[in-house]
Each structure stands twice: as C-alpha cells, then as structure tokens.
Design a protein that fits this description.
The complex is a heterodimer of chains A (63) and B (715).
Chain A: H1 2-7, H2 14-36, H3 39-46
Chain B: E1 4-9, H1 10-39, H2 52-84, H3 91-114, H4 127-149, H5 158-177, E2 180-184, E3 187-190, H6 194-229, H7 236-250, H8 265-277, H9 279-291, H10 297-302, H11 304-326, H12 329-335, H13 339-368, H14 376-409, H15 422-460, E4 466-471, H16 485-492, H17 494-518, H18 534-545, H19 560-565, H20 601-609, H21 611-614, H22 625-628, H23 636-645, H24 654-675, H25 688-698, H26 701-712
Antiparallel strand pairs in B: 1-4, 2-3
Classes of the chains: A mainly alpha (63), B mainly alpha (715).
Chain lengths: 63, 715
C-alpha cells in the first residue's frame, strides 16, 4: 500500500535534494544568527535555570 | 506588574522518582540474571519464562523504558515547571501519563516472559501494548506543549527544545516502526519485510538511543548541571548549535547498524558518513557540559552530585566517539555481532544515563523533602562502586569482543579456519562473562545503597508536595529588542518550533527509507525464494517467541571467514518474505542463515532437548517444553491471511487447505526421526519441536535450490 502511495508522487526523487538544500540553508542561517546575536539576550537565557525557587535558594544538601 | 502566585507540582515528580528507583533495581537485577545465565546455563531454570531469550528483552525494556524512561519524566516534570515558571498544564494528564506508563511497564513484565514479542529490538512489545504506548505518549506531549503555552517565561531554555524533540521524534519512530498486522491478541507480523524491515527497525533502534536515551538527558544536563554547579552553562550559543546539528544528523545514522549486511551499499555509506559527522555535535555537547565546571572543579571533589555528572558526561563523550568509530566499516567488521557492542551500549547506559540519573536523584530528593542528603559518605561509596562496576563491566566485554572476533577470523597456514567449531570461541570468553557479571553486581550494589540513602533522606525531611512560587504573567505588549529576531521568533512560538523539529527529523528518515522502498534494483529478487510453508511459519513464530534472535544471527557477511564457516554470504532477495526480519545483532551462538541440511532432524531434536548433551560446553539453555506443547493449528489460516495482507503471495483460499500441507510436512519429519530410532512421545506430530525443526531446516534452503537450478539450466 505504502509503495503505491509513494510511487504515485511525481518526481519524488527531487524531494531529498530539496530537503538537503533546506537543511543547509537552515544551518547557515542558524550559524549566522548565533554569530550575530546580542550577548545580553544570550546571557539572560543562559541564566534561566539559576533563577531561585523555593527549594533552590540555599544549597542544603552539600553544605 | 501584577505578580501571580502558583505552585510547582512535586508530587508527580516524586511518583516518577519512586518508579525510577524500583524499576531501576528490577531492571538491573534482571540484567545480572541474564549475565549469570551466560556463564551458568542452569540459571535458565529450565523454565520457558526465565530463559535468556526472554529475559534479555525484559532487561533491555526494563532499563530503557522503566528506569531511564521514568527518570526522564521525573527530570522533565521537575525542570520544565521551573524553567517555564508554571505548574504543569494539567494534573490529570500528569497522572494519566504516570499510571499509563506504569501500566505499559507491567504489561511488558508480563508479556515478554510469556514470549509475546515482535522480536524487533527495543520494540518487542506486541500491538495492543503499542497502542497504549501511543496514547500515553500523546498525553505526555499534550501536557508538555500545554505547559509551554501557558508559561510565564518568554524564552524557551534549550533544555525545553531537547524535550520537544524527544516527544516528536519518539512519536514518529514508534508509529513507523510499529506498523504491523495483528493475527491474534498478542501476535502480529511486521508490515515490512526483510531488508526494509531491517532498515526501519535500525532507523528506529538507533534513534531510540538518540531521542530516548540522549536528547532528554542532554536537556536534563543543561538544566541540572548549571543548577548543581551554580553557574550558567559554558556557552549557550554552543548549546543552540548542539541542538540543531544533533537532531539533524542523528536521524540519518541508523544504517550503521547494518554494515556488511544485505542492505544496499549506498545506504550503508550514508549511515557511516552521518555517524562520523555526529562526533561534532556530541563532543560539542560534552565539552559544553564539562566546561560549565570551569572554576568549580574544586567542588567536584566534595560534591557527589557533580562527581556523578562528570563521569556521566565523560561516558557520553566516550560513547559518542566510539559509536562513530564503530560505524567505520573496517572497525565494524571486527566489532559487529560481538560483545564490543555490548560494552559500547553499557558505557552509554551505565555511565551516561545511569550516572546522570543518580546525580539528578541526589540533587532533587533533598530539595523536594526540604532537608540535607542523609549521607554524603554513602553517596561517595555508591559513586566508587558504580564507577568500578562500569569498568568491570566494560573492560571484559571489550576484551571478549575482540578475542572472539579474532578467533572467528583466524585461519591456519593450510588455509582452514583455526576454530572451526564455533563453540570453542564461546568457551574461550566465558571467564570474561563471569567478570562482567561481577561488574554488574557492583553497579547494582551501588544502586541499592543509593536507594537506602534516598529513603533515609526522605524520612528525615518533610515532603513539599506543592512548592510555592510567584512570577509576573507574560504580557502581549512584549516587543523583541532590535537585532537577531529570527531565532527568538522560533523560540517564542513553540508550535512553529515543534513543526520545524519534526521536519528536521523527517528529512533524514525519508531519504534513508524512500529509495529502499521504491527502487526495485535495491532488492534484487531471487526466483527460487518461496514463502514459508505453514509448518515453517509456526516454527518461525516459535523461534521468535523463544527469542533465539537474541543470540543467533541470520546474516552471513561477505567475509571469507564467514563464507568458510557458514556458507554463501546473504543476499537481500532471500529475505523478501521475512515478516519480521531476523538478522539479529549479536552472535552468542553461531549464525543460522545456512543451517539447512547442516545437521539431521534427529540432531536438532536432541540438541533442543539438551544442548549440553549434544555439544559439550554449550551455554544454550534446553527447551523441554517444546516437546510437550502443541502448535495451535486453529490459527494457521489466520497466520496465512495476515502474512498475505502484508504482501506474501499465498494463493487465495490457501488458508483453508494450509493445515493439510502442515500435517504432511510434520509427518515426514517425524518419520525421519523414527528412522533414526528416536524415542518419540505420543502425538509428537503436533509438538512445537517439529515445527521448529521444519523452520531451522528451511534456513538457506532456497538459495541452494537456485544454485542447483543454475547448474542444470545455465543462463
């Protein structure tokens, strides 16, 4: 069944190529973004886990 | 701005933690039992429910889905609420998820020893359980996405991305790989056959490692490591690149589990190339983790949590370097089918998953119970026992893998195999199997000490079921600051993000699979290869039920050492009617693809009754119940219909006459046994052993017929 579905798609061979191009373009954009992003934003996000919550205000287990 | 008050749900985290600890101990104990069975076969207890072939999948399912799975959910539920500053979307969904998951585990613990299995590694559970898994997984995803949508933090921290990727990919993997045709309530046939089934299975198997054992744990690393070290992750930018490159590349690498098999060569190369590329994101992640501890290494000496994390991240680094190296064909030629692979997965399982879980438990439990850890000394003892356990497990397995592989391949000066008898190569490594069991016992002892330590900690404190918190709500007036808006848009829109993740993993999967499914030249047909006879179908299903595939392969690789030992190398066209494929991934016993005619029916009959009697020193368990139990001829027709519906060309109406053929073939086998003066019990014609013999004698028969035909009618 699945074979018929796939075979009925015209020019299916081009899909992987398109996918590959999307993959690389996405990656180039990502690298470009990472290279140019505002450092303040990155710092803010990277400190998200450190926000104190009730159980985390003091480091009780290892004092 | 108005501050909202709410509470974090610790109760659900507690439930998952308890399940993690209980099933962790059970899973490890079952693993230890399996390890001991390989040294002392008497521990198979001559019971069908406790033989290695059924215990081994129980172990893998227990540690992967029950231990690592429950710990993942505990980690996700704990960190997600805090990272997004909100309670989980729905307490009801949380509890449906919890109890649903435990139901699946209990179902696995019952059905696997009973022999209800699809035989596909890490996807052994039969179709009704598959459906429950799908429902429970959707509940988990629904709860997770709902939580993300009602968050009070604008940015989605990278850990959340890893959790989303986990949900999406595991859903896709599970759905695609579980495409099967039910026969009875607990029996189904894979919708794919032979090479295609193998490709789908290892696309699944490899990415189950990636998206069940790796991505959620990387998410947990990115949350709990900064917490424990009390400093932000070394490079958040690196974590972004780490995430996208990891999910893009991982999905392609599955075929490296099938090197030198009948899988088309281009697919094998694709697997290798992407595996090598995977070193980059994996090591990027590992370095990011270790570098987070810069300036805090002095604390690693004192803090057991950090100790466990450092070993976990190091084990991740080692396993993710070793994996790509194993995918090189020259290394794979030695390592594949041996204990090297067992060592590799246990460095990942015991080191990366196990130690990260222990670290998280030691960190979370004192906080949720609002107290200090009961004993740091015991935690340190656990650390050292666990570390020694990993070493005592992995080292003997590396040695065993290389020793056995080289013995398989050794030729004497006359050009014959030095170790013609496979059993010699097994006996040689048994002492190493003993050492491995000691390693496992050390690791388990450490886990028991942890359990005691955590229970004492919990009793000393008071459990904080609902942890109060407060945060301002997200407002719609938010305007992103200038510059670099692209990724933040993505990150702010979880649905777009989820869809992109889905596209990323579908691209890899599709490129791997579509051509193999479409292009006929990828699987050349062999005219002499015919569907199995009714008796052989029953026999094959017994082979599946007993988990023979856990120790025996059906794939002769194109090496002289293998063609010399077993016969002609395997071709993809031989497997076109194999639903599911039974190539196997480990040779504890010899390959069986060319078994036809190698031994007499009488030999098989005696061997299955007492392998030790027929082959002295054999560690194969005996199967006395096959001689007592009868095949169920009532379902022969159903089996034929189910196989036909997945593409095996049985003639219309054959299901009603199949049993006549079955009886005829069984009678011939029984007569051959009688001729050898075997003492046969009453009604042996219908015994399971006869069906199994029929199947074993069929293995590799068709390709012989083709060769004979070639000689008679030259083309």
């Amino acid at each position: 069944m699945y074979k018929n579905v796939l075979q009925s798609i015209d020019n299916i061979a081009i899909w992987p190529v398109i996918s590959f191009v999307i993959f690389f373009l996405f990656f180039l954009c990502l690298l470009w973004w990472v290279a140019t992003v505002d450092k303040k934003v990155i710092k803010e996000i990277s400190e998200l886990p450190l926000e104190p919550t009730a159980g985390n205000e003091t480091d009780k287990s290892n004092e | 701005m108005e501050i909202e008050r709410f509470s974090y749900d610790n109760k659900i985290v507690k439930a998952f933690i308890i399940a993690t600890v209980i099933f962790g101990l059970v899973g490890m104990l079952v693993g230890l039992t399996a390890a001991i069975q390989l040294v002392y076969p008497v521990f198979n207890f001559e019971l069908q429910y406790t033989t290695f072939g059924r215990i081994r999948p129980l172990h893998t399912n227990a540690v992967i889905f029950a231990f690592v799975g429950n710990a993942m959910f505990a980690g996700v539920y704990y960190s997600m609420q805090r990272l997004l500053k909100t309670r989980m979307y729905s307490d009801t969904l949380s509890w449906i998820h919890f109890w649903g998951w435990q139901l699946i585990i209990v179902a696995a613990a019952i059905t696997l020893p009973m022999g209800f299995t699809t035989s596909k590694e890490y996807a052994e559970l039969e179709w009704p359980v598959d459906i429950v898994i799908t429902i429970v997984w959707v509940v988990f995803g629904w709860n997770m996405i709902g939580t993300i949508l009602k968050r009070r933090v604008r940015h989605m921290y990278v850990a959340i991305w890893f959790y989303i990727a986990t949900f999406i990919t595991v859903a896709v993997l599970h759905l695609v790989n579980s495409f099967e045709m039910p026969v009875t309530l607990f029996k189904s046939y894979s919708g794919y056959a032979g090479v295609q089934d193998a490709l789908v299975q290892w696309w699944y198997g490899h990415n189950a490692v990636a998206f069940f054992l790796t991505t959620p744990y990387l998410g947990m690393m990115y949350y709990f490591l900064p917490k424990a070290a009390n400093r932000p992750v070394y490079s958040y930018k690196l974590s972004i690149i780490h995430f996208w490159s990891l999910i893009f590349l991982y999905i392609w690498a599955g075929p490296h589990h099938l090197l030198y098999t009948s899988l088309p060569d281009w697919a094998q190369s694709l697997g290798t190339v992407f595996s090598i590329m995977l070193i980059a994101p994996s090591w990027g992640g590992m370095l990011n983790g270790l570098m987070t501890l810069r300036g805090a290494w002095d604390r690693v000496r004192e803090d057991p949590v950090l100790k466990f994390m450092v070993v976990a991240i190091t084990a991740y680094g080692m396993a993710t370097l070793e994996g790509p190296l194993l995918s090189l064909k020259n290394v794979n030629a030695i390592a594949h089918f041996t204990d090297w692979i067992v060592a590799h997965v246990h460095v990942g399982g015991l080191g990366w998953n196990g130690f990260l879980i222990f670290a998280v438990l030691y960190w979370v439990v004192p906080r949720m119970w609002n107290t200090k850890l009961f004993s740091i000394k015991l935690a340190n003892t656990h650390f050292w026992l666990g570390t020694l356990g990993i070493i005592f497990y992995a080292l003997p397995m590396y040695v065993s893998g290389v020793v056995q592989s080289l013995m398989w391949k050794e030729f004497n000066p006359e050009g014959f195999l030095t170790y013609k008898n496979f059993l010699e190569t097994t006996v040689a490594i048994l002492p190493l199997y003993g050492l491995r069991a000691i390693g496992g016992a050390l690791y388990l002892t450490g886990a028991i000490i942890m359990t005691y330590n955590l229970i004492k900690t919990a009793y000393a404190g008071s459990f904080l079921a609902n942890e109060e918190a407060e945060a301002p709500p997200l407002t719609s007036e938010y305007r992103p600051t200038a510059g670099g808006w692209h990724h933040r848009v993505l990150e702010h829109k979880p649905v777009i993000f989820t869809v992109l993740t889905l596209i990323a993993i579908l691209i890899g999967g599709a490129i791997e699979m579509v051509p193999t499914f479409l292009v006929r030249s990828n699987i050349p047909t062999i005219s002499s290869v015919q569907p199995y006879t009714p008796l052989e179908i029953h026999g094959r299903d017994i082979y599946i039920r007993e988990g023979c595939v856990n120790c025996h392969t059906q794939m002769v690789r194109p090496f002289r050492s293998e063609t010399e030992r077993y016969g002609e190398y395997s071709k993809s066209g031989e497997y076109v009617y194999d639903h599911p494929f039974l190539w196997g991934s480990k040779r504890t016993g010899p390959d069986l693809a060319r078994l036809n005619g190698k031994y007499s029916n009488t030999w098989h009959y005696n061997h299955m009754y007492s392998p030790e009697f027929v082959s002295q020193g054999s560690i194969m368990p005996s199967y006395p119940w096959l001689f007592r139990q009868r095949i169920d001829k009532e379902i022969t027709g159903k089996k034929i219909s189910a196989l036909r519906s997945v593409g095996v060309p049985y003639e219309p109406g054959y299901e009603s006459t199949a049993n006549a053929d079955l009886e005829k073939q069984a009678k011939a086998i029984v007569e051959s046994l009688r001729a050898d003066k075997v003492d046969l019990p009453e009604g042996v014609e219908n015994a399971e052993i006869i069906a199994l013999i029929a199947y074993l004698q069929r293995l590799g028969k068709d390709i012989k017929i083709e060769k004979t035909a070639d000689v008679q009618t030259p083309r």
